[in-house]
Design brief:
Elements lengths: L2 H12 L5 H18 L5 H18 L4 H17 L6 H30 L7 E6 L3 H12 L4 E6 L2 E2 L2 E2 H11 L3 E5 L4 H7 L2 E4 L3 E3 L3 E5 L2 H10 L4 E4 L5 E2 L14 E5 L5 E4 L2 E3 L1 H4 L4 H4 L9
Parallel strand pairs: 1-2, 1-6, 2-5, 6-9, 7-10, 9-12
Antiparallel strand pairs: 3-4, 7-8, 8-11, 12-13
Helix pairs in contact: 1-2, 1-3, 2-3, 2-4, 2-5, 3-4, 3-5, 4-5, 5-6
Length: 295
């Protein structure tokens, strides 16, 4: 594997500051750069090298299903293209084009999910969130630009020296949004004050749970006891439509597994969906299938 690509994958593996959406885009950028940089003399060698990078990306962040979905899709599309495209140059163009298309589609999907989630933001409401989610922040920024007035409570959580509550607060405050970081030990008291909860997701398992940063599980359990709605914002590319997380009992350190029964809705580029509807999504649906997913 080309050394710069190996370093980029290693950086993605170590990254604990950015969310799944940002890292999904980074994975696609790495795959696109791989297509540009490989100098294989045969189509077979080109496929072997780009497949090596794709597998390394999947292994780097196994809990972030969107990375695996993108990598597997590109692998399969290139394998199909190789049946007729015998030259490595033709496959290079195809791989670069697919990765570029997915990057644009991912941007469109995340923006559409945020536009749909804006419908949930009510005036003079108190919104609670935890972990750092670019999707949540984008939604709140859109709502603020649309003239909706609200306040945000960001539960503090840490990974080493990284404070996700502080990252969230800095971004929202820079956009002119009132955001206060609240200690995890006071979570129950602040949930009682909140009108609803907005969180992102790293992955949604079709076995009935989602992965997100701590303390998402505690927040979801308290919200259920207090009868406060919990809404998840994410693009459907984060759905584990192939069951890659089957058998996973413990996510990466710093992440929680949250039962979908605790979730009120999942807001995607397709709209505000019930958890039952999300569980019906297939891999073909994600990439230009019958529901017009990414594609």
């Amino acid at each position: 594997m080309i050394v710069p690509l190996r370093k980029s994958i290693s950086a993605l593996k170590r990254d604990r500051e950015h969310g799944a959406g940002t890292l999904g885009r980074l994975a696609l950028e790495i795959l696109r750069q791989t297509a540009a940089d490989i100098t294989a003399e045969t189509a077979e060698r080109f496929l072997a090298e780009i497949n090596e990078v794709a597998e390394a990306l999947i292994d780097a962040r196994p809990s972030m299903v969107s990375i695996a979905n993108y990598a597997l899709y590109i692998k399969e599309e290139l394998a199909a293209a190789a049946v007729t495209a015998k030259s490595p140059q033709r496959l290079k163009k195809t791989a670069f084009s697919i990765a570029s298309r997915l990057l644009k589609s991912q941007e469109n999907s995340t923006n559409a999910a945020s536009r749909n989630a804006v419908k949930l933001i009510t005036k003079r409401s108190i919104i609670m969130t935890c972990s750092y989610s670019s999707a949540v922040c984008s939604t709140l920024e859109m709502a603020m630009r649309g003239g909706t007035d609200f306040k945000v409570l960001a539960v503090d959580s840490h990974h080493k020296k990284i404070s996700y509550g502080e990252i969230t607060a800095r971004r929202l405050q820079a956009a002119g949004i009132s955001c206060r970081v609240v200690p995890g030990g006071q979570l129950a008291w602040h949930v009682a004050r909140a009108d609803y909860i907005l969180c992102g997701a790293d992955a949604i398992s079709l076995h009935g749970w989602l992965i997100n940063g701590e303390p998402s599980l505690e927040l979801a359990l308290v919200a259920a006891r207090k009868e406060k709605p919990l809404h998840i914002i994410c693009e459907t590319a984060k759905c584990d439509a192939r069951g890659l997380l089957t058998g996973l009992h413990q996510p990466e350190t710093g992440f929680d597994m949250v039962p979908l029964e605790l979730v009120s809705s999942i807001v995607t580029e397709r709209g505000i969906l019930s958890t039952d509807k999300v569980l019906e999504i297939t891999f073909d649906d994600l990439f230009g299938g019958k529901h017009g997913g990414i594609g």
